[in-house]
Fold this sequence. Notes:
The structure holds 2 protein chains of 2 kinds.
Chain A: E1 7-8, E2 13-18, E3 21-26, H1 28-33, E4 37-41, E5 48-49, E6 54-60, E7 64-68, E8 73-78, H2 81-84, H3 87-91, E9 100-104, H4 116-127
Antiparallel strand pairs in A: 1-2, 2-3, 3-9, 4-6, 5-8, 6-7, 8-9
Chain B: H1 33-36, H2 54-67, H3 88-94, H4 97-100, H5 112-129, E1 133-135, H6 141-158, E2 165-169, H7 175-182, E3 186-190, H8 200-206, E4 211-217, H9 229-238, E5 242-246, E6 266-268, H10 271-274, E7 289-291, E8 303-308, E9 314-319, H11 335-371, E10 387-390, H12 392-398, H13 402-411, E11 418-419, E12 428-431, H14 439-452, H15 457-461, H16 474-479
Parallel strand pairs in B: 2-3, 2-4, 4-5, 5-6
Antiparallel strand pairs in B: 1-7, 6-7, 8-9, 10-12, 11-12
Helix pairs in contact in B: 3-11, 5-11, 6-7, 11-14
Amino acid sequence: xxxxxxxxxxxxxxxxxxxxxxxxxxxxxxxxxxxxxxxxxxxxxxxxxxxxxxxxxxxxxxxxxxxxxxxxxxxxxxxxxxxxxxxxxxxxxxxxxxxxxxxxxxxxxxxxxxxxxxxxxxxxxxxx
Amino acid sequence: xxxxxxxxxxxxxxxxxxxxxxxxxxxxxxxxxxxxxxxxxxxxxxxxxxxxxxxxxxxxxxxxxxxxxxxxxxxxxxxxxxxxxxxxxxxxxxxxxxxxxxxxxxxxxxxxxxxxxxxxxxxxxxxxxxxxxxxxxxxxxxxxxxxxxxxxxxxxxxxxxxxxxxxxxxxxxxxxxxxxxxxxxxxxxxxxxxxxxxxxxxxxxxxxxxxxxxxxxxxxxxxxxxxxxxxxxxxxxxxxxxxxxxxxxxxxxxxxxxxxxxxxxxxxxxxxxxxxxxxxxxxxxxxxxxxxxxxxxxxxxxxxxxxxxxxxxxxxxxxxxxxxxxxxxxxxxxxxxxxxxxxxxxxxxxxxxxxxxxxxxxxxxxxxxxxxxxxxxxxxxxxxxxxxxxxxxxxxxxxxxxxxxxxxxxxxxxxxxxxxxxxxxxxxxxxxxxxxxxxxxxxxxxxxxxxxxxxxxxxxxxxxxxxxxxxxxxxxxxxxxxxxxxxxxx
Lengths: 128, 490
């Protein structure tokens, strides 16, 4: 994925929209904070999510973080490979480390998300 | 030289036929087990217990105990845990026959001394809290939180109000939202300001008629006093909600201010931390709660009450509050720890209790001042009883993490501070020296850290270098924990 083409949340998820299916993952910035992953919980396929709903857990030795749905929709696929290989998430968060695909309920949800420049600016403020 | 033979697993020390005790020949007829128990109750073979001599057992456990770092052996600045020295006289007093040998089923008339102690403890905790009604029942802090939230839920239900939201700041202990969720509330986390305090605008935006409780630790987990606490309480009360004070950091404010005075309606104590129950390694704890009078009818029972006996002398008795939520712990709570807290408070008296906090805060500020140039403290130059330093710059410039500093400190004979909590500070080292440490100890600790940050990063990544095991595999322990020994696994 080309980072410049993606949309972002302040909670560090990315969204790539292809027709009415959105692929969702976590950003490089978030993955960089995740050392020593110990557990990943993905949502069930078929579950309907609303904007901002927590739908998964990423746990490291130090802390547990919730995964939030950036947009509303139905879970049509999750990346089962992550459960066996956490390195995918830390090494390729924008590629093979994607988390889930949603059938988008409302395409305009994407308009409320951050573009790449705005997301980078947000990370900058979190750094301080 | 360390005895590495004796600290193997005790099962690995086992040799067939070894015994610690020789039983005499039985002087009564021996019946076969099969005559005494039904066939389906009999095991196929004896359990695989280790077979060892008395000397094997003693050396095993004594050597293991010497691998431990404890407050009796080391400075232990584990932030948020208040690892102060626990006076040994408390152990002696708790064992006195009139105290240690009592059975909880004894008739009240025969345990008046014990009940008097528990009653006075109840009263002292109420006074220090500024909240008059106390339950000694909860077994530790988190159970105190849960108990207080269940008490609040019963109060709202009784008033016919259906309030579902519990608010807490991002710096809260993880037990706060966990307790709220278990008590059936919805949890709403509020972001902190850049100064590490409650964001008042965010709070106002989240308070409504559905808000039940705001849970806050004061001073908070970055070691700062929440200056707006009176206004926070006013806003919550105006909306009909309650304020819960997590008493984890009471060591900073004893005798100086009181949760009840700054607007709290409920709180818990950690008697094992603040009032010297020996703790660490899982307990035992004691987490009494103190609440406002209008919440008293819902407290778990039994609570202690002082009556007048037939002879005109006081008579202490147990009773259940009128609309009690029921029991949360067997008998009278963790009495062993309550006793140590009682002895501590009675030894120090009101002036001494205040001095605990004055010295605890002074010690923390002294260490902060000695360390801030090498480990910056993002939330200011002054703290309460603890402070949160950050190894973020060290990590960026030299690749030395908070974990590396903590691990290396073990080689210098210091227990590590709390690391990576609270999450609001990157590469956090949370340091709480407590009041029981001398200036010499604080100086030695600061010197050790100054030396560590100048060491080779690669050497630090492999620290500690002096312990039996250097770095256990945290990830494997979390992902594939082996929680008990089993013969099959060997």
